[in-house]
Design a protein that fits this description.
This is tripeptidyl-peptidase II. By secondary structure, the protein is of the alpha/beta class. The chain folds into 2 domains: 127 residues, no CATH class; 380 residues, Peptidase S8/S53 domain (Rossmann fold, 3-Layer(aba) Sandwich). It is 30% helix and 20% strand. The strands form 8 sheets. Strands 10, 11, 12, 13, 15, 17, 18 and 21 form an 8-stranded mixed β-sheet that branches. Strands 4-5-3-9 form a 4-stranded antiparallel β-sheet, sandwiched between helices. It has a 3-stranded antiparallel β-sheet with strand order 2-6-7, with no helix packed on it. It is globular and about 75 Å long.
């Protein structure tokens, strides 16, 4: 036994002392904490950090090609979505990568566990004192006075030179929470001064006059031609993300349906899935505004589509991503993930590292390749980001709207639709403009001229992609009807339209739409949307971006027209 111990100790010493592991290189760094955070004292040496390590994925270029092959109309592979195993083959790290990283961790007496289906994410826990030594870091307590939030972070960390090209990032290190964005993306309603259309106009569009001040499912059916007939395909499912202890209340849904969808059974229920210790309390006082909104405007608009509320608890495994990565890994582990996933939460792009943003974006590519349409609210701060109170000289893009592998949804308002002033939109500082939107965005930038020059990245991925009503939306919370506003309303509405299209496609023996953007930006897809050409999204001491003909960074390509979309998808 003693001989074996000495042999093991000698091996560990040799590994730890090898030149490859001794030579350290800075892997990620930032010059300062995000605006709003103040650097405090050194983190307590004994404080345990739950760290996650992202291994280099084997063939993301191949997965991206496969994603666009199955998502681009006209492609020979359009609609032939990948299986779980096919996606994992692109993502799984090389054996050499796994071996080398595990060798480094073992040399430092660290045992890690795999936390993703493809094996590309590892998790381990070590005290601050060891993390500082292991990563040549300086973990410090950062305060956020406005909210009282405290975070333990470092502004830089290093890894051995031998691991460069094998480790993408270690998290949480230089990424910060956006404490304000952990709130639901729901704004207090603002009654905008708008011209009320005359009776003749309302009659010609079959839009009830009441929709000027109160938006209901009936209004959306009139605005967008959304059918009331029940969906027929049980295999077609719609997922609704739930975070930060926001609970969807079944009794409130029943009241909502009795009030606003009398043609649907008031006993219609949603399915519940949980992860990270999630739950869904049915105590009336714990009903969440965000969760109720999302459930009521999926079940209440996507008539008959099986809907699942996916509640992410507080025991998340992805650090300050608050379960954003966990929910995607959870769905990637399923054989049949939902065909549509809508999420009404987000944060400012500048709060997270570009490497981490890229990792989460790659996870969306994986789920999109499986055939899931991923939609997110674009945010409620106009060009100032996501519920931001402090704005720098440059506009603040939101995340994950900057990811090119998901669909960002902005907001409109009024019976003659115009851009909602809060609708976040702009250009990513992390992600380059994808080819599918190159022409549409270039046309807009030409028309924009020098307006806002120097305040945004002219070559970045532009968002939002589409939009829907987001003002004066009626929901029921704790048995009381109230009005809410935000892109948080818009995402479940647009997601419901996609779910109803998928129902028709599946019934016709065709594949669901999956990753939407190549279709939406195609000539047929763009022509099937209602172009919104008025309004803007002020912030940062400016009027923001103006809505214009075609795509714009306030309302995207526009709002849905169900009949035209049916034709565009070949039905």
């Amino acid at each position: 036994m003693r001989t074996g111990f000495y042999l093991l100790a000698a091996f560990v010493t040799a590994v730890a002392g090898s030149p490859a592991f001794r030579n350290m290189l800075v892997h990620e760094q930032r010059s300062a904490a995000p605006v709003g955070f103040v650097k405090g004292t050194a983190a307590p040496a004994a404080k345990v950090l739950n760290l996650r390590l992202a291994l280099k994925q084997s063939d993301m270029a191949g997965l991206e090609k496969a994603l666009f092959d199955v998502s681009t109309p006209g492609s020979a592979l359009y609609g032939q979505h990948l299986t779980k195993e096919e996606v994992e083959a692109f993502v799984a790290p090389a054996a050499e990568t796994v071996s080398l990283v595990q060798e480094w961790l073992a040399a430092n007496d660290i045992t890690a566990k795999t936390i993703s289906p493809a094996g590309d994410w590892l998790q381990f826990s070590i005290p601050v004192s060891q993390a500082n030594t292991l990563l040549q870091a300086d973990f410090t307590v950062f305060d956020h006075p406005e909210t009282g939030t405290q975070l333990t972070r470092t502004l830089a960390y290093s890894i051995p030179a031998a691991l460069q090209g094998h480790v993408d990032l270690i998290h949480p290190t230089i990424t910060f929470d956006n404490p304000l964005a952990n709130l639901p993306v729901v704004s207090s309603p603002k009654i905008l001064k708008e011209a009320i259309p005359d009776a003749a106009e309302l009659e010609s569009r079959a839009v009830p006059a009441s929709c000027a001040t109160k938006v209901t499912p009936a209004c959306l059916q009139a605005f967008y031609g959304i059918p009331t007939t029940l969906a027929t395909q049980s295999s077609n499912t719609l997922g609704v993300s739930g975070f930060i202890d926001q609970f969807a209340n079944q009794a409130d849904l029943t009241t909502f349906l009795k009030s606003f969808r009398t043609d649907l059974s008031s006993t219609t229920k949603f399915t519940l899935q949980t992860l990270d210790g999630g739950s869904n309390s049915q105590t009336a006082s714990q009903a969440g505004v965000e969760a109720n909104l999302d459930i009521q405007y999926t079940i209440g608009v996507a008539s008959g589509v099986p809907t699942t509320f996916i509640s992410v608890g507080d025991n998340f495994q992805d650090g300050n991503l608050e379960g954003f990565l966990d929910i995607i890994n959870f769905l990637l582990a399923e054989t049949n993930p939902p065909q549509v996933l809508t999420t009404s939460y987000g944060q400012n792009e500048n709060t997270i590292s570009s490497a981490l943003a890229n990792q989460l974006c790659n996870a969306y590519a994986q789920l999109g390749a499986r055939g899931t349409s991923i939609l997110f609210a674009s945010g409620d701060g106009g060009v100032a980001g996501s519920q931001t109170t402090t704005c720098s000289k440059s506009f603040l893009p939101t995340f994950p709207s900057g990811c090119p592998f998901m669909t960002s949804v902005g907001a409109t308002t009024g019976t003659t639709e115009t851009a909602a002033t809060f609708s976040s939109g702009g250009f990513s500082n992390f992600f380059a403009r994808p080819s599918y939107q190159a022409t549409a965005v270039s046309t807009y930038l030409t028309a924009l001229g020098t307006t806002n020059s120097g305040k945004f990245n002219t070559s970045g991925r532009a968002f939002p992609d589409v939009s829907a009503q987001g003002q004066n939306v009626q929901i029921v919370v704790d048995k009381v009807t109230e009005s809410v506003a935000g892109t948080s309303c818009s995402s479940p509405i647009f997601a419901s339209v996609i779910s109803l299209l998928n129902d028709r496609l599946i019934a016709a023996g065709k594949a669901p739409l999956g990753f939407l953007n190549p279709f939406l930006y195609s000539a047929a897809g763009a022509a099937a949307l209602n172009d919104v050409t008025t309004g803007d999204n002020p912030g940062c001491g400016t009027n923001g971006f103006p809505a214009k003909a075609g795509w714009d960074p306030v309302t995207g390509l526009g709002t849905p027209n169900f009949a035209k979309l049916l034709t565009a998808v070949g039905l």
